[in-house]
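Colleagues,

For the teaching module next term, I've prepared a clean inverse folding example: a structure given as tokens, and then the sequence designed for it. I'd like students to try predicting residues themselves before seeing the answer, so please don't circulate the second half yet.
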């Protein structure tokens, strides 16, 4: 009987030590981010998650540019939204919600990348790897800005006029967050606004019959024609057809269709869109 008691006591002690070790290992894994808990969350929509980004845009993103100085001192809403972006899997969202999520994720991470260097930054072009090397957490994965944009552009070419690369010639930053329920309407409005801006989107010289377009149409010609960028670059007709369909000005559209102008591209101003 005495030997049985001794054996039992030893067994209990061994189990207790093993339990403590397992508990310690779990705590260590959790601290280092290696635990079994999922990094991402599944979402059925984006409206709730984008509320913080919407607040930040209303305060610091109106009138096209960004009040980086003000946002630098009041970035809680931006950080809250970026945490949501980091934890939310785009694949778990319905198509419209995913499109809105990706556009918001791109714009918010661009703003963060600028703020991390502000006020010393004058242009994102001065930062090596700004678009294709630096990574950001999106749905538990590390993605570059180019990768986030590409994922969104595959869904809708009008994303070109919604994502904002923190530069003067970029489309204006919309003063509200994109939401799945209205993303089509928002993208249509953004496209119309951009093409109505003669300083950055579209300018028609009737006397010379020249149609001046943003260099976006040159760099991503394939997106607007359905062909490769190299082939589309020489296919001005396809780009003009796209512009006529989306310009939002029926009179101008009719004129362009009738007169078939030459297409030229505006110089791109990469200076910071600091308001």
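(Answer key — instructors only)
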């Amino acid at each position: 009987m005495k030997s049985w008691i001794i054996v039992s006591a030893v067994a209990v002690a061994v189990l207790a030590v093993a339990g403590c070790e397992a508990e310690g290992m779990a705590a260590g894994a959790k601290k280092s981010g290696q635990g079994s808990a999922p990094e991402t969350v599944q979402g059925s929509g984006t409206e709730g998650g984008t509320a913080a980004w919407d607040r930040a845009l209303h305060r610091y993103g109106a009138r096209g540019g960004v009040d980086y100085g003000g946002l630098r001192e009041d970035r809680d809403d931006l950080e809250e939204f970026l945490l949501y972006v980091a934890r939310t899997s785009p694949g778990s969202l319905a198509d419209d919600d995913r499109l809105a999520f990706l556009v918001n994720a791109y714009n918010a991470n661009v703003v963060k990348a600028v703020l991390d260097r502000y006020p010393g930054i004058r242009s994102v072009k001065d930062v090596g790897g700004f678009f294709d090397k630096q990574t950001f957490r999106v749905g538990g994965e590390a993605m570059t800005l180019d990768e986030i944009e590409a994922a969104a552009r595959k869904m809708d070419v009008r994303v070109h006029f919604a994502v904002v690369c923190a530069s003067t010639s970029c489309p204006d930053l919309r003063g509200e967050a994109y939401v799945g329920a209205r993303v089509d309407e928002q993208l249509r409005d953004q496209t119309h606004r951009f093409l109505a801006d003669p300083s950055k989107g579209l300018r028609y010289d009737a006397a010379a019959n020249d149609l001046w377009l943003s260099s976006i149409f040159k760099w991503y010609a394939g997106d607007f024609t359905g062909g490769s960028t190299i082939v589309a670059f020489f296919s001005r007709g396809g780009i003009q057809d796209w512009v006529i369909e989306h310009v939002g000005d029926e009179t101008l559209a009719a004129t362009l269709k009738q007169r078939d102008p030459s297409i030229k591209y505006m110089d791109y101003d990469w200076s910071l869109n600091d308001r």
